[in-house]
Amino acid sequence: MRRILVTTVLLVAALGLAGCTASAGSVQSDSPGDSIARAPVTAPEKATGTVETASTATSPRSAVTTGTLSITVDEPSVSAEKAVTITDGAGGHVDGRTEHPTTDGVPGSAQLVLRIPSAGLDAALTELKKLGRVENVSLSTQDVTGQSQDLAARITALSASVDRLVELMSRATTTADLVSIETALSDRQANLESLQAQKRGLDDQVDLATLTVDLGTASTAPVRPPATFVSGLIAGWGSLAAFLSGLLVVLGVALPWIACAAILCALVVYVVRRRRTRVVSHS
Question: Contact at 8 Å (CB) between 36 and 187?
Answer without folding.
Answer: no
